[in-house]
Amino acid sequence: MKRAVLKLQGVSKSFGALRVAEAIGLEVLAGETHAIIGPNGAGKTSLINQISGTLAPDAGRIVFEGRDVTQMSIAARAQLGFARSFQITQILPHFSALENVSLAVQARSGSSFRFWQAAASEAALNRAAVHWLDSVELAARADTLAGALSHGEKRRLELAIALAQAPKLLLLDEPMAGAGSEETRRLVATLKSLKGRYTMLLVEHDMQAVFALADRISVLVAGRIIASGEPPAVRANPAVRAAYLGEAT
Amino acid sequence: MPGARRGNPVAAPSGPRALSFDQRLAAGLFVLLALLPLLSRGIASSYLLLVGERLVIFAIAALSLELLIGAGGLVSFGHAAFLGIGAYAAGIVASHGHGSLAIALPAALAASAAFALMTGAIAVRTRGVYFIMITLAFAQMAFFIATSLAPYGGDDGLTWPTRTQVLGRPILKDQLTFFYVCLTLLIATYLGVGRLIASRFGRVLRGLKDNETRMQAIGFRPYFYRLTAYVIAGTLCGLAGFLLGNQAEFVSPAYMHWQRSGELIIMVLLGGTGTLYGPMLGALALLLLEEALSRLTEHWKVMLGPALVLIALFASGGIAGAIAAWRRRRRTPARLAHTLPRVARHLFGVGLKASRCWRREGRRLLLRPAHRLRRGAQAARAACEPAKTALGRALEALPPLAERAVKTTVVRWWRR
Questions:
Q1: Where in chain A are the domains?
Q2: Which of B8, B12, B80, B345 lies at a CB distance of 3.0 to 4.6 Å from B260, suitable for a disulfide?
Q3: 3-class DSSP state for residue B165?
């Protein structure tokens, strides 16, 4: 059996009376694409935020490659190999697309407490950045200000930034959100090309995309995981049908 | 757009590079400043040189603040504290007989750095308005500590026994030498801050300003980068304080007053943040404006305030923003040809009116307070009308205006 990259044990979180996570146990195996689905308000984004470090869980442990990272800062987790995309794209709007990615490369290569050499002319950083931009078909837009990119391009740029971090775990929070059908098709193709090479945890609403991409699916309803398994099994699960798919299909 | 305006980061050609527009502008500014002593020799007056020294020293302080505001997005409302700390540290060691460069300068820099490290460690944990308030609070603390330093003059300030000695000799006593030392340090600061902002460290700092969430997600801890920037900026401003103390051979708590901090912010914003020449021009503009207005009337603050409000309203990018806007439109020389004479005429009008008013009323203004007030208000009103139109025109064509302003200033000094 494959080893688990990420393990959640009894992770709980509530906002006042609203319980967004109730003793969640979850394992993401090395190299798999694990999708989390669930109706609106089920606590999917809260879960991703707890994994990436934006939110601190009230109880439970988050273990990454055998290390307890529950108390670690976002930046420290990123240094360990977490990379994420956000439901609302988070890029550096006043930097060029290339510099956006180049900064991510910089974060993983050597100290950033260097005060003299111009960062924008570091060939090694820029070469790597161009490579990652190319992998999401954005190389042609390298010199464009990130803020001036189209919505779909920003999505792909965010993906390039995440890939440039040389991640051991990719956390993708609704990468398809707000993208048009053409953009969605393109993003799914890009993610498919990454499948197997990266360990991915994917939160997504687009069911077609989820079933096209995921190796395993966990279904989150009202802060609990009600089912977890391979897509056909999850699709056939009566509880899931009742709680979620029933509404969708 | 701070990230964007700092030149094109992508096209980074190797080998010798042509200077960008910004750099040429800064270089032109340095050349102008370097030529200043020639002028002052011409009219056999050291006054111009004194003003020049102040311009240069405050340009250094403004550059250090630009590092925080422009690159880091950290609006420090307590930056003048470092001016005072630099000057006090050097003054205090000098008053104990250690007025040599080898001791006084390191003392000034170390004291500023230490204060920046201690206060920054707390301040950079906050953002926005809280950062403004906490830096203000620390600066006020420094201010009140200075006023209570009884052995070193307290409220009255501390008179330095001498200017800093270089190798045991009073080299800096010579005004010309001192001016060029200041100018050299300004150029060094300009180049240094420029490199810093473009470096890996500077890029992280700018990135944090642009989107902190993203920067954290790729693994940067904001705290240490911001704290480092705060210490560097504080130390640089301490250098400016050291020079300021040397110039006056005196330091008082007023150096650290919050109004001074406000002036530094105004310099940066008036000049235009996001560029390096902007804050330097801002320092020049504010000090020259003060100088010129205080010649017209002692109620010059009444005129400075509205002028700043107008600039904030009509040129939110400051002087640098206006220059950038003008560059975008410069392909219409017809417009410029149309504007230039008008700007000149209006400026001339303001100058003429003001000088006439002063000549006519100057003596009486000094003697009779009530009369003084009324006349002052009248003068302000009289100057305001053409000034308003002139400002409008000026914003359309600032560079020619700057040229003109330099000329008028020179002419006025000539006539003195």
A1: 1-81+167-249, 95-166
A2: B80
A3: strand
Residues β-bridged to residue A171: A84, A201
Q: How far is B63 from chain A (nearest CA, A)?
A: 16
Q: Which CATH superfamily is domain A1-81+167-249 in?
A: P-loop containing nucleotide triphosphate hydrolases (3.40.50.300)
**Which pair of structure tokens corresponds to residue B266?**
């105004």
Nearest CA in chain A to B214: A90
> What's the mean pLDDT in A165-173?
94
Residue A164 confidence (pLDDT)? 96
Mean pLDDT for chain B? 84
B338 pLDDT tier (thresholds 50, 70, 90)? low
Both tokens of B312, joined, read 């904030």
Are the C-beta atoms of residues A15 and A61 closer than 8 Å to each other? Answer: no
Q: pLDDT (tens digit, 9 = 90+) per residue, B101-155?
A: 999 999 999 999 999 999 999 999 999 899 999 999 999 999 999 999 989 988 9
Number of inter-chain CB pairs under 8 A, A vs B: 123
Query: What residues of chain A lie within 8 A of the CB of B216, using their CB?
Result: 73-75, 78
* Nearest residue on chain A to B211, alpha-carbon basis: A92
A216, A230 contact by CB (below 8 A): yes
pLDDT in the model for residue B362: 61
Per-residue confidence (pLDDT) for residue B401, from 0 to 100? 57
User: Is the C-alpha dihedral spanning B6, B7, B12, B18 positive or negative?
Assistant: negative
Secondary structure string (H, E, C) spanning B347-388:
HHHHHHHHHHHHHHHHHHHHHCHHHHHHHHHHHHHHHHHHHH
- Rounded-to-integer distance, Cα B371 and Cα B368, Å: 5
pTM listed for this prediction: 0.82
Asked if A140 reaches chain B (Cβ–Cβ under 8 Å), the answer is no
Question: 158-177 in A: which are within 8 Å (CB) of B?
Answer: 161, 165
Q: Is the pLDDT of residue A91 over 70?
A: yes
Question: Is residue A118 within 8 angstroms of chain B, CB to CB?
Answer: yes
Per this entry, what is the length of chain B?
Answer: 416
> Tell me, what's the ipTM?
0.93
In B, minimum Cα distance to A78 occurs at B219
Q: Which of A2, A17, A7, A62 is nearest to A223 (CA)?
A: A17
Closest Cα of chain B to A46: distance in Å? 16
Residue with token string 């509205």: B306
Predicted confidence (pLDDT) per residue in A180-212, tens digit: 888 888 889 999 999 989 999 999 888 888 998
CB distance A165–B207 less than 8 Å?
no
What does the alpha-carbon distance between residue A240 and residue A36 come to, in Å, rounded to a whole number?
Answer: 12
Task: Please say if the pLDDT value at position B303 is more than 70.
Answer: yes
